[in-house]
Design a protein that fits this description.
two-stranded antiparallel sheet; elongated; seven-stranded mixed sheet; alpha+beta; EC 2.5.1.3
């Protein structure tokens, strides 16, 4: 099993760095300067300069790669382009070359010829394919979970029923289109514990809240539930969130929908509990990382 990302790391990245290092050296930058610009060690620059790193000739000879390297080398050497801007340009190039039938897609399919067995309908390198969309959702969710796991103090925000960070596909219609953590996120002796890798179709409660909000016009693709506290709610509103209350005693989807209808700009939904119902806050956002960062800001 080999992912296209491995092709990027093993074939594309060494070639790009080698070519860019050479072009920057030709423009008068010292080995130390090149190391700083590329974010690598001087010894690595030396290896690139002496041809000790194997490059992929098909990548090196691609006209778009050559043009991008020339443009970035000019900009980086004069300071007109920052390393961050160069990174963005290269990210865009990678996505272009991953598109079905293009260079990185070809290299991947050659490395994993079994992909052809899935037929033309299986378009793994089509950025709009269901598989690629699902990959992006789960990848975003993993990053969001890492933010929460590394956020000191998040465990205290986890309610007794557990938290779940969920994210959905752009055209989500049901729970199977929402990814979450199987078994939820729990506080185990003061430590945030994620029991399993995220999957689609494993969150019913938080997924229901997210889907209901979206059906009533909320511009959100991710959500998390945390314990309710007056101070937390106040802090979220101070940070620019619009809050709307709903009643979880009745049908959740209908109650959430009514809350969004009353407050179309709401990015925080909350209920203050009832008999046998724990009070909770739900934070909505564009993606899992932004939701996780919003919650981390409360700590």
């Amino acid at each position: 099993m080999q992912f296209v990302e491995e092709i990027v790391v093993d074939e594309f990245l060494p070639t790009i760095r080698s070519l860019l290092a050479g072009e920057l050296r030709e423009r008068g930058l010292t080995q130390s300067d090149v190391a700083d610009v590329l974010g690598i060690s001087q010894s690595a620059v030396s290896k690139y300069a002496h041809g000790d790193v194997t490059i992929n000739e098909r990548v090196a000879n691609d006209e778009r790669v050559s043009a991008t390297i020339e443009e970035l080398a000019d900009g980086l050497s004069t300071g007109d382009v920052t390393p961050v801007q160069a990174l963005i340009e290269l990210e865009v190039l990678v996505r272009e070359l991953e598109t079905g039938g293009d260079l990185l897609a070809q290299l991947h399919e050659e490395a994993v010829p079994e992909l052809a067995d899935h037929g033309a309908s299986f378009r793994v390198h089509d950025p709009e394919s269901d598989l690629r969309t699902s990959e992006r959702v789960v990848s975003s969710l993993r990053r969001g979970l890492r933010i929460l796991e590394n956020a000191s103090g998040f465990a205290r925000l986890i309610p007794a029923v557990g938290s779940n960070l969920v994210a959905c596909t752009p055209d989500a219609e049901g729970i199977d289109d929402v990814a979450g953590v199987p078994g939820r996120i729990f506080d185990v002796k003061g430590r945030t514990t994620v029991p399993a890798a995220p999957e689609f179709g494993v969150s019913e409660h938080v997924a229901t809240v997210l889907l209901a909000a979206r059906r009533h016009g909320a511009d959100a693709s991710a959500a998390i539930n945390i314990a309710y506290e007056d101070d937390l709610l106040a802090d979220l509103t101070e940070r620019g969130h619009v809050a709307a209350e709903f009643d979880e005693v009745d049908d959740i989807a209908s109650s959430v929908g009514a809350a969004i209808d009353d407050q179309p700009e709401a990015t925080v939904l909350y209920q203050t509990g009832g008999t046998g119902i724990e009070p909770l806050i739900y934070v909505l956002g564009a993606d899992a990382e932004s939701v996780a960062n919003d919650v981390r800001s409360l700590l």
